[in-house]
Specification:
N Utilization Substance Protein A, Chain:P, domain 4; about 25% strand; alpha+beta; about 40% helix; 5-stranded antiparallel beta sheet; about 400 residues; GMP Synthetase, Chain A, domain 3; elongated; single chain; OB fold (Dihydrolipoamide Acetyltransferase, E2P); 4-stranded mixed beta sheet
Length: about 400
């Protein structure tokens, strides 16, 4: 009963860690053998008998009877007189099995054994958590904000598992409060020491792809395929979709009536602007769609160098480039081609950088941010519109326009 009582006292760890009794007993045997090895030098001559149903464990020490005074190894040999105190009819050469009570190991050994057991159960628990989350890599997951740090947010799921979302895995507009529920994808799981480090991401293109699967039934059912996703988190994204069923309009199904289906995804991503386009193997058409909302006049593709020269009317250039160059950058990532934009019929135009001796670099940079990098592209714009779209004062814009007009006059 002493052994049972001690093992039952260890069972609190089973309840805390949701470890079944059979696994607990297996860990116990490993821990006991380690303790026996430390105490007696070897555990080879010990039998450990486990009964997981009763929660009982017996330890038997096996020794050979030798004549009195001839004991060389006290762990594996026992003197005749000592053996006969156990059983009076033992003879030299016979085997003696003697039960070892846990309490006989001493208080210090039991405390060490208990500590070792805690460590082993934690190790087992961490291994299970690692395996569980490794299988969830790339999947949507929900967890609650537990602690907010400067460089990361610590989340806890329903089972109390700790999940980390670093700052660079958060959308710039994300703002979380303690206790708030957060959705992201499990991006990576690594073992650091014996503890699993579970990383959640909301900036990964895969997060947006999984949101499409979650929110759009046709994508979930496989009727619509998400071919590729590229995004600048919190700003803009492009999603190429395709369907093998000609009766289904993949873009229309993903966007929904008046944007009803995609609205929830946009809101989840902090109002990220999402362009959904039809995928096609026709590269010219694919690049044309990728540069939407700009309307393209012509395209010249160089397959060897993976570049595309796109000709547009002057008023379409800023649409193709997009705010901060986001549109053209994402179109390039989506198609795999580096896209160069050219204005139709402006051979006499002059690059804005040519005026760097008269116009300061930071002013030129402000115009470039909105896709205006030549003299004529600026002169075609309205002054008030330029002031609104840039961080420039009206006086500065007027001064730049004066300098540019003088060039052509």
């Amino acid at each position: 009963m002493e052994n049972i009582a001690l093992i039952e006292s260890f069972s609190e760890f089973k309840d805390d860690k949701l470890i079944d009794r059979v696994m607990l007993m297996a860990i116990l045997e490993e821990v006991f053998r380690s303790t026996l090895k430390k105490r007696f030098g070897s555990d080879d001559n010990f039998d450990i008998i486990i009964n997981p149903d009763k929660g009982d464990l017996e330890i038997w020490r096996n020794r050979v009877v030798v004549a009195d005074g001839e004991v060389e190894d006290e762990n594996s040999e026992i003197s005749l007189s000592e053996a006969r105190r156990i059983e009076p009819d033992f003879e030299v050469g016979e085997d003696v099995s003697e039960e070892v009570k846990l309490i006989d190991l001493g208080r210090r050994s039991i405390l060490a054994l208990r500590q070792n057991l805690i460590s082993k159960i934690h190790e087992h628990d961490n291994t299970n958590i690692y395996k569980q989350f490794k299988e969830l890599e790339g999947e949507l997951y929900n967890a609650e904000v537990h602690h907010i740090r400067h460089r990361a947010i610590i989340l806890l799921d329903d089972e109390g598992n700790e999940i980390i979302m670093p700052k660079d895995k958060q959308i710039p507009s994300d703002f979380f409060r303690k206790g708030e529920n957060v959705r992201g994808i499990i991006e990576s799981v690594e073992l650091k020491g014996n503890k699993p480090a579970i990383i959640m991401s909301r900036t990964s293109p895969l997060f947006l792809e999984k949101l499409f699967e979650s929110e759009i039934p046709e994508v979930f059912d496989g009727l619509i395929t998400v071919k590729k996703v590229v995004r600048i988190p919190g700003e803009k994204a492009k999603v190429a979709v395709d369907s093998y069923d000609d009766r289904i309009d993949p873009v229309g199904a993903c966007v929904g009536m008046k944007g009803s289906r995609i609205h929830g995804i946009v809101r989840e991503l902090g109002n990220e602007n999402i362009d959904v386009i039809n995928y096609t193997n026709n590269l010219q058409l694919y690049i044309t769609r990728a540069l939407s909302p700009a309307k393209i006049t012509s395209i010249k593709i160089d397959d060897e160098n993976k570049t595309a020269e796109v000709m547009l009317k002057p008023e379409e250039v800023s649409k193709a480039i997009g705010r901060g160059g986001h549109n053209i950058r994402l179109a390039g990532q989506l198609t795999g081609y580096e896209i160069d934009v050219f204005r139709e019929g402006v051979e006499e135009d002059v690059e804005l950088t040519e005026f760097s001796d008269e116009i300061e670099d930071w002013v030129i940079a402000e115009f470039s941010k909105i896709g205006l990098d030549t003299a004529k592209s600026i002169l075609e714009q309205d002054v008030e519109d330029l002031v609104r779209r840039t961080d420039l004062e009206e006086e500065t814009v007027l001064d730049v326009m004066r300098i540019l007009r003088e060039e052509f006059e």
